[in-house]
């Protein structure tokens, strides 16, 4: 039996249907294009768009795959001193290179991060006759050479790495007061020494950013005390305790174990409560470190001249998330533009559908999958899936040839039909 193929004829579709399909294609194209361009434009702002948060909250069978794409799904690197210290060193190199900092600016930037190279100092004409700093340091229980007098520069110096703790400063002052009573001479030189100790200790109490980071993450109680007095965020102390980090890691393990075994609605609901608790703990620990990093960058910006500041922000570190963000933003913008223009319509529609399928699979509204808190309630079908299906429908229709650049391209390469009788 011979089967005759009947060629598709778009004229069998009503003109209204043709017009609506073209409008659908252009509308989806505009939606994707605008979304992509908006995200690209945020790169010029202080808060550039990133898919990191979306991926970290992924659910479904590909949850681990999507979350691991971020490189740090639970923000544990923020709570690792070595990782953060290396991150800041890399940032400093980019900052110096981008703004072409002078030698003086580089020293001041290094002082912000690591403390002043020569330590903290105040002027002092001369210590009391016969006064021994070694005895004073020993009595105060301070590290060796924590404080010394430089006769050449006539300055009292506190080591930039050792500092003076409040308890050490108090004991030093007490030692000087006792020495003044025993000396029985002119007390003015002792009073000047006490004043100098108070002044240099106050300057030395300001930790470098790296020391403040270490105090936060290592839970140094005396160093943390200095931080508590100098900086607050939303009336909460900017302190991260080692035991709290361990507790947070325990919450992560508990959640992952329960996620792997969750099957009933009750278990998923209970898991949602655990997720909320986990995120609250993450914010309480990571937030102070992020605030400290923000303070560092703001203080670094104050070192710049107007000409340097006009160069814009220093480039961010290139990571896997950088590539993911760029592919997402440019994919949305390019596919959207091509759909609006009706150029390579079917390929761009398939490309847009593939991109949307990734969005859908990151948070599929399937039965037996944790439901993400939202004002919407979906089951299997959501707006992303609907738009993806619409793009597949566009790919199945020659809408670019009905109205678009594809019609022009097609006419240029169309073979001329032979007239009957030739």
Describe this structure in words.
This protein is mainly alpha-helical. The chain contains 18 helices and five strands. The protein has helices spanning 15-41, 52-56, 63-68, 81-99, 103-114, 133-140, 166-183, 188-204, 209-218, 221-230, 242-261, 265-301, 306-309, 320-341, 345-362, 383-395, 399-402, 405-413; strands at residues 120-123, 147-150, 155-158, 232-233, 236-237. It has a three-stranded antiparallel sheet with strand order 1-3-2. A two-stranded antiparallel sheet has the order 4-5. α9 packs antiparallel against α12 (265-301). The longest helix has 37 residues, at 265-301. Residues 221-240 have low confidence and may be disordered.
């Amino acid at each position: 039996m011979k089967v005759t193929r009947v060629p598709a004829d778009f004229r069998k579709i009503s003109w209204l249907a043709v017009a609506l399909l073209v409008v659908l294609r252009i509308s989806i194209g505009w939606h994707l294009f605008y979304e992509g361009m908006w995200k690209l434009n945020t790169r010029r702002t202080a808060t550039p768009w990133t898919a990191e948060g979306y991926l970290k909250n992924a659910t479904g069978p590909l949850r681990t795959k999507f979350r691991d794409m971020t490189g740090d799904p639970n923000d544990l690197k923020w709570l690792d001193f070595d990782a953060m210290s290396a991150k800041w060193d890399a940032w400093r190199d980019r900052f110096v290179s981008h703004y072409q900092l002078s030698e003086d600016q580089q020293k001041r930037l290094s002082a912000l991060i690591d403390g002043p190279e020569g330590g903290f100092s105040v002027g002092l004409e001369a210590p009391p006759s016969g006064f021994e700093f070694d005895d004073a340091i020993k009595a105060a229980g301070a590290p060796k050479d924590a404080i010394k007098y430089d006769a050449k520069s006539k300055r009292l110096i506190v080591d930039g790495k050792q500092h003076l703790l409040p308890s050490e400063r108090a004991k030093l002052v007490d030692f000087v007061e006792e020495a003044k009573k025993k000396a029985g001479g002119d007390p003015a030189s002792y009073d000047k020494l006490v004043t100098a100790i108070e002044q240099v200790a106050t300057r030395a109490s300001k930790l470098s950013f790296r020391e403040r980071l270490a105090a936060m993450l290592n839970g140094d109680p005396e160093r943390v005390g200095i931080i508590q007095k100098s900086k607050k965020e939303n009336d909460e102390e900017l302190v991260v305790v080692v035991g709290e980090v361990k507790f947070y890691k325990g919450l992560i393990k508990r959640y992952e174990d329960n996620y792997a075994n969750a099957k009933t609605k009750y278990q998923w609901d209970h898991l949602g409560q655990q997720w909320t608790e986990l995120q609250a703990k993450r914010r309480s620990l990571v937030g102070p470190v992020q605030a400290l990093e923000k303070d560092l960058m703001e203080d670094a910006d104050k070192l710049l001249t107007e000409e340097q500041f006009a160069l814009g922000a220093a480039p961010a570190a290139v990571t896997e998330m950088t590539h993911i963000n760029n592919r997402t933003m440019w994919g949305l913008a390019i596919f959207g533009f091509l759909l609006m223009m009706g150029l390579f319509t079917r390929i761009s529609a398939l490309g847009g559908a593939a991109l949307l399928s990734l969005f859908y699979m990151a948070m599929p509204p399937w039965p037996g999958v944790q439901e993400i808190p939202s004002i919407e309630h979906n089951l299997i079908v959501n707006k992303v899936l609907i738009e993806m299906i619409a793009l597949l429908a566009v790919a199945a229709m020659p809408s670019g040839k009905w109205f678009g650049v594809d019609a022009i391209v097609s006419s240029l390469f169309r073979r001329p039909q032979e007239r009957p009788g030739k």
